[in-house]
# Entry
Amino acid sequence: MSGKRILVVGPGELNADDRKIWRDIRTAAGAPANPFMDPAFTTAVGQVRPQARVAVLQEDGCPVGYFPYERGLSGRGRPVGAGVSDSQGAVLRPGIRLDARRLLRACGLASWEFDNLEDGQHVFVPHAVEELASPVVDIGAGFERYTEGLRRSSPAFLKQILAKERRLARRVGEVRFAYDARDPGALRALMRWKSAQYRRTGRRDRFAQEWITRLVELLARSEEPECRGVLSVLYAAGRPVAAHFGLRSQTVLSWWFPAYDPAYGKYSPGLVLQLRMLEAAAADGIGTVDLGSGPARYKDSFKTRDLRVYEGAVVRPGPGGAVHWLGREPARAARRFVRDRPRLAHAARRVLAEAGRLRDR
# Structure
């Protein structure tokens, strides 16, 4: 249409005006201040992923939207930071209407696959094949109000965490929690524990991919108020026993990489850390902790509600679209089949864990 065009640039080409407009659009749309949807996250990914791009939508020469993505072989597109991005989509000024396939054509993409598309993405939701629950913890009213609700909904759960914290202190040594630790040794320990957990459960080790390690280290040094890393550490007798590295904006903390030292597993240090992290985050002005999609019993115990996220793909007709379908859709359908059958899903997790155990022998 006359007056409208789409420019494709590298994340490093976004200037201060672009970052302000991007954030203003998010605010005007009433979207949550999720750090994964901030321009600082896209810029950081661009420093470790050369295939990262941003489509800038302009109307009469002024930006009205941004679409971050990565372009792979045969024009297969993925969200920026795919594999570790917990919130995905385009940033569009309210009222902007856009055809998803037209956008892909302008970006040189045959397809664009998503697995954590945020709610309200009217351009892409029609292409979703599955709606998933993404639990969050609301702590804007304060930690005491939150724990009052937790005692009502799951009194035994809270008592068990506090009892294990006391037991850890008695049997190991003084327990100390740091909400925003600047401890490179603890960050390295966290990545070792998480790698071991991935292998133990038969999953792909994300920290075996250099770009993810570099991204985490980069964000750990960030001073961006709307997207910076927060390393929280639980210490016992002066040594780290559990840690979490997440991303925060001024009001949202995204749960990202939690792990603990298996030697202290009987004390549930991960749960103790999460409870103390919620307490500290509430005191620091965080209103929502986004636990991310994916099943986990501890998420169900801590959450106050669920957000909706979507999984699916936009596919343009043609050879590139066929390559996407053949490469991804059968596997996606198989995962949905297993996930929708709890007994089968449990058996699959056992098989993955056994495979991981045998691999580490």
User: Anything to note?
Assistant: The chain has two domains: 4-133+308-359, 140-286. The chain has a mean pLDDT of 91. The radius of gyration is 21 Å.
